[in-house]
Amino acid sequence: MNNNSSRTDEQETLIQYEYIDKLKDIISDKSNRLGRKLTYNVTTFGCQMNARDSEKLRGILDKVGYVRTESEDADFVIYNTCTVRENANNKVYGRLGYLHSLKKKNPNMIIALCGCMMQEEVVISKIKESYSFVDLIFGTHNIFKFPELLYNAIQSEDMIIDIWKDTTRIVEKLPTSRKYAFKSGVNIMFGCNNFCSYCIVPYVRGRERSRKPDEIIDEIKELVSDGVKEVMLLGQNVNSYGKGLEEDIDFAKLLRRVNDIEGLERIRFMTSHPKDLSDELIEAMADCKKVCQHLHLPLQSGSSEILGKMNRHYSKEDYLALVDKIRDKMPDIALTTDIIVGFPGETEEDFLETMDVVKKVEFDSAFTFIYSKRTGTPAAAMDNQVPEDVIKDRFDRLLAEVQSIGRSKAETYTGSIQSVLVENVNSQDDSLISGRMSNNSIVHFPGDESLIGSIVDVKLTECKGFYYIGELDG
Ligand code: SAH
Ligand code: SF4
Ligand code: F3S
Prior knowledge:
Elements lengths: L8 H26 L4 E6 L3 H17 L2 E2 L7 E6 L4 H20 L4 E6 L5 H10 L5 E3 L7 H10 L4 E3 L20 E5 L1 E2 L10 H5 L3 E2 L2 H13 L4 E5 L16 H9 L6 E5 L8 H9 L6 E3 L7 H6 L6 H14 L4 E8 L6 H14 L3 E6 L17 H24 L5 E9 L6 E6 L4 E5 L8 E9 L3 E6 L2
Parallel strand pairs: 1-2, 1-3, 3-4, 4-5, 5-6, 7-10, 10-11, 12-13, 13-14, 17-19
Antiparallel strand pairs: 8-9, 15-16, 15-18, 16-17, 18-19
Helix pairs in contact: 1-5, 8-9, 12-13
The site of FE3-S4 cluster has 11 residues, from helix 2 and helix 6.
């Protein structure tokens, strides 16, 4: 498929708004005929980037007149997929069977698939062959074309597939519908150029490209005027933000500019690659009072040899030295990480190096993953794939260590007073409300929904391992 390069990014936005108008008429006609509103459901798999993309899909569906439902028994269902590990794909295939049974009962139902998994040719072939009831498929690079594609899908009897191999485009200013009124993700860059040898993301998200700083700042100002207090700056490697832009900008400078936005109260970002975390960024984080006391810094492995094979461009010692530097400037910062167990060739000694880093750094929490072979990545072709039982044993040992350290780290905050952004009424006990501390931990405390979206001081009275019970202070 081509990149529709005859349209500029600005023209593209206008064209998509024209499709939104056309869709409004079609949806309104349809619902008049049926005598009821048409419903939609967006299900998101994967990372924050996908969650943000789903807010864009919802924004458009809201605009054209669909009504949101949590049930997948809806008139329009879309899965925004992830393919980072094999089990992400399996989940989607499993649930498609269920969707088919719903579609047999509802002839109006339209089923769409988008996201990272759709950028893989094998996936498309499999869907064409075994899931022919799917109506619309598109990928990560042309998600902004959703209004046009939905319009075509509604008119057509056939499966519509539009996948681009890559793109240089950044099409902005289409509607979004945020999950939370008071916080929002903000894309600062798209794609990834790092090609960690195990990772499929660069193949499905394309080459790295940064948004212009002014566009980012304008978007955040608009969000703030709409009630947003906290933003999460999103990119696969935010530390390399700004490369290729004409402006004199990098992530540290961007952070300072975002920090200056009046009315904004909290800034988070994801994800930081250790190889690109500069001294300037550490300075900026320490200086900028709105930047939360939390850094997610994926380790992946503690063995320098494995890190080399992973193409991560840092050693065990580099990582430990970086952590020291960060803690020196920000002693209270919470550090979290991602770790992969069972990368090809990982020996018991390599694994013990990972355990050693975990013990030395004392992460506040860690996401631990079993290595998943992704076809097309260099690691998939490596010798010495580690047997499943060995991986499982290492994974269990790592998880136990990570959890025990996490628990004792969490305990040290008990009794302290923390500023908390209230997110929701507790789903199990409606006399409690729940919010997040600066370090990203969750606390539940007595209160009512009028506090949702406010930042309040909460005393942590009890640590429950990975969350707290507290009470409003003062
Ligand atoms: N850009 C981010 C991570 C994106 S993917 C970064 O570089 O940190 C999120 C996490 O999934 C990664 O940090 C890694 O730990 C894990 N992951 C990626 N590919 C994987 C694979 N093939 N098998 C298991 N875990 C994987
Ligand atoms: Fe994958 Fe590495 Fe890019 Fe992260 S930095 S998305 S792990 S290739
Ligand atoms: Fe998954 Fe794509 Fe994110 S593969 S982790 S949804 S970038």
